[in-house]
Write a structure and sequence with these properties.
9 helices; globular; 14 strands; disordered N terminus; five-stranded antiparallel sheet; 34% helix
Length: 285
Amino acid sequence: MPQPTVPSAPAARADAQAQPGRGAWRRERRTFVLEEVDSPEAIAAPFAIFAEQALAPVPLEFEPHAHALHELVWVRGGTMTVRLADRVLTVPEGQGLWIPAGTVHSGRMTAHTELCDAYFDTERSPVVFAEPTGIQMTPVLESLLTHLEDPDLESGPRLRAEAVVFDVLAPATRQISLQVPRGRRVAPIVAALLADPANDRSLSDWAVSLDVSERTVTRAFRQATGLSFVQWRQTLRVHRALELIAAGLEVQEVAERLGYAQPSTFIASFKRVLGTTPGAYATGR
């Protein structure tokens, strides 16, 4: 993940115009794209954790990459979206995401967001998660990891703090995750919706243009995700809505950007997915 200042070219570039990216969503204006992501290759023994943080004044996007160490990433003051080969995950404030070593991922975060991450040695970490997992960022866990950022922290206190980190590291009760269907027949649909969740093209239109039956498309989505085509698109829009809410947009503007004719329809979809209204979610943040 980035250092406290935004890197200069060629490691990064600023996209002046909104355009599709290789991450999860269409890039917004002035998105800063990190093509190379610096991260530690190892942690000096006997320690197991290296922590750091950076502030992103503009929307920031990370091209696909992987780390040699396990990574725990979380944000303050915004939202981060992570794209894996088979999933889209949203990391709101108050949660983190554990990414196992070697896992290829891309991501983006909203402007004016503080990005925090900690790297964990693969051999000296007694607690690990085999797959990407949402982590509950309790005040205790955040304080400990912030404490471990101090380069002058002595060996004894550092080892004791690391031990407590592993004691309190636990999965979040709610994993904000969406499976991404894979397969040649539905790939154009998935790519179009990931680039623009507001795309409201009907299932029948997609079936005609791809020369497949509606049943084939429905079966592909249901088998891969447990959701119908319409449910999957609604859930994808909620993931995008979390990012827009974190950027400070009002509920009505979020609904319009996501292609809803009526805010009430958007609110109902949001509540169906997350169990709360977008207004209540924004207030809770």
